[in-house]
Amino acid sequence: MNTIDKTQAHITPTYNRLSVVMEKAEGCHLYDTSGKGYLDFTAGIGVNALGYNHPKWVNATQSQLTALQHISNIYYTKPSADVAETLCTRTGMKHVLFVNSGAESNEVAIKAARKYGHQQNKDKHKILTLKNSFHGRTVTTLAATGQDVFHQYFDPFTESFDYVEANNISDLMNKADPTVCAIMIEVIQGEGGVIPLEPAFIEAIDQLCRQQDMLLIIDEVQTGIGRTGKLFAYEHFGLQPDIVTSAKGLGNGLPIGAILFGEKVKGTLEAGDHGSTFGGNPVAAAGATVVLDELSEAFLEKVLEKGSYLKEKLEALDAVESVSGMGLMLGVTFKQANAKAVMLEAMEEGLLFLTAKDKLRLLPPLIIDQASLDEAVSCLAHILAEKMQEVTK
Questions:
Q1: What's domain 3-54+297-392's superfamily in CATH?
Q2: pTM over cut 0.85
């Protein structure tokens, strides 16, 4: 039995897999079992921020693996303490709690917000999120996700969520009643189609949270860890959130999530309020230390430059309607071509993209160079030209 047959026979089919078996990788390139190479614009859905086989990251994780691969959180370990210190120093946040994924990060944020509200008033428990948002696939984070397509089969879902129309300040004000303890947003809706929120709407949310003592929660699972050219995307808007959730790029391929707590909420969760067997695992934390070390201000400035360059090149293509996003998190809308069809054809030509709703989604490793950006645009231009010819025949 080959790998695909074994997978189909023995692994629950919760993913729409493509018929490729990946075997190894280097830098920004993946290689399948036939030896075919692919330029990667997915980064494991925004995970492999430093690409593949990054020497410093490999050395740090291998060294930690031979020293101490795991120990429970009954004890202290240096790698998690180092990562927490760095995150707090660079953001102005006060405490960090480590978990394993973005969904778990958002679960903890929800728990902390509910407890914070409960300490004020037992009826202050509602959390506002946005329509078209995505916050995870657990029962509670599905409830927090503002897309009806996810609200089926698994009900009853966790209660006390309400959904605000993105960029609609009037809807926001109408739904911000005294039972609301927090507002949870992505400043760029990733799975929702790489859609940035309008600055005026973000400012209205921030002001409302301060005025009514609601917690401002920013979901940075996909937008964080340098993806938009800042350590966290909220920095583009001058915000100081109460809670920030993170995962994906922080581990560069190893599972880690982090919830950052600000001054107002740093003492809300106490011993026994949450636990995570692998939260702050020493090997994952050792890798995260390298990721944060590499994401210097100069590195992040380069991400912004590369993102601007790529966006400009994409917008210049005749078949492109628009390009949304920031930094190296971009969504491309085509005038006529189907995004999924483009993605599949690009894979045949050795270029890996993602989709989000009806857009082609680009999340390359942050280390990608200009030559690779040019290669991707050239390949995409070729594919789109063929698509245009098909339409005009």
A1: Aspartate Aminotransferase, domain 1 (3.90.1150.10)
A2: yes
